[in-house]
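Below is a filled-in request sheet from our internal design queue. Each sheet records the structural input a requester submitted and the sequence that came back. We keep these sheets so that new team members can see what a complete request looks like end to end.

REQUESTER: design group, bay 2
PRIORITY: normal
MODE: inverse folding
CHAIN LENGTH: 287
BACKBONE (tokenized):
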């Protein structure tokens, strides 16, 4: 494994990850004032990079942060990062902050952003995880009201995930005013009567790149998909629950608050979506 000895990118330089340093006055450190992305790489090819770049552009725009690179610039940075790592499957992380400046809440003038990017070998969800599924606990969503922005200010997500960990679970399924939002770092999908149901893409959730992808897979498979708000009892009484994210791909949730979800085993809709997901990844190898 070539991590953490791996090479990373910081403000135009390529250097070992352990040697990369930023100022304590970086606004990412001081305020969490920045945007990030996580892009999975399969067979040395980034998966849905354009969608990630689109989401990144939107997030930077929403917080008035200048995007330091155009799409071609990001694509070539990603290609170079992939080349530094021997693993075929990787996940790329990058973040851009509002740079280094005197500590002042207002945006600093004429301050270049801090641009950091790294890659890590990616171990895809194991057969055991796919077959056994995940355990989740429910929690009140205590995050801010712009969860559509992929901000590096992740304290709310950290506290939610820690809550799950302390309760022996893999993820926290969050509710705001009684309505399902999402996991600490994943989108949540409910299956009822053969229909996949997902909360709407609004400011209360991050639009995962898997959110769009699973929507396409449902369409391809002829699985009905409904986008609407979901009450807590609809989630608790679901036939199946699933999570999606770049690193978890799509995984079933078999227990919620210690009670079985549906049969307590990964369900048939999950199995179909998982097979279609894997097929799409395998198609990358053949390209
Ligand atoms: N919601 C949140 C809060 C997340 O942190 C993530 C993971 N980045 C997701 C959803 C899933 O997004 P993606 O499919 O792009 O990984």
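RETURNED SEQUENCE:
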């Amino acid at each position: 494994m070539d991590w953490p000895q791996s090479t990373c990118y910081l403000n135009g330089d390529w250097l070992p990850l352990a040697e990369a340093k930023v100022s304590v006055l970086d606004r990412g450190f001081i305020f969490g004032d920045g945007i990030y992305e996580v892009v999975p790489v399969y067979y040395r090819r980034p998966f849905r990079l354009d969608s990630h770049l689109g989401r990144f552009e939107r997030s930077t725009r929403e917080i008035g942060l200048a995007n330091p690179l155009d799409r071609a610039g990001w694509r070539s940075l990603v290609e170079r990062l992939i080349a530094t790592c021997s693993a075929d499957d990787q996940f790329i992380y990058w973040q851009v902050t509002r740079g280094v400046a005197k500590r002042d809440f207002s945006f600093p003038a004429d301050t270049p952003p801090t641009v950091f990017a790294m890659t890590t070998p990616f171990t895809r969800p194991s057969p055991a995880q796919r077959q056994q599924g995940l355990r989740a606990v429910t929690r009140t969503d205590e995050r801010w009201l712009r969860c559509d922005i992929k901000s590096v200010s992740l304290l709310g997500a950290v506290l939610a995930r820690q809550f799950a960990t302390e309760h022996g679970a893999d993820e926290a399924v969050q509710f705001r005013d009684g309505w399902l939002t999402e996991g600490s770092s994943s989108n949540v999908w409910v299956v009822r009567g053969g229909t996949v149901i997902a909360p709407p893409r609004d400011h209360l959730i991050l639009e995962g790149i898997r959110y769009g992808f699973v929507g396409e897979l449902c369409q391809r498979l002829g699985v009905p998909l409904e986008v609407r708000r979901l009450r807590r009892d609809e989630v608790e009484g679901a036939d199946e629950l699933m999570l999606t994210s770049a690193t978890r791909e799509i995984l079933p949730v078999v227990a919620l608050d210690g009670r079985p979800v549906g049969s307590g085993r990964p369900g048939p809709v999950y199995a179909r979506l998982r097979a279609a997901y894997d097929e799409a990844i395998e198609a990358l190898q053949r390209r």
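SHEET NOTES:
- The chain has a mean pLDDT of 97.
- Residues 127-286 form a domain with the D-amino Acid Aminotransferase; Chain A, domain 2 fold (CATH 3.20.10.10).
FILED BY: M.R.
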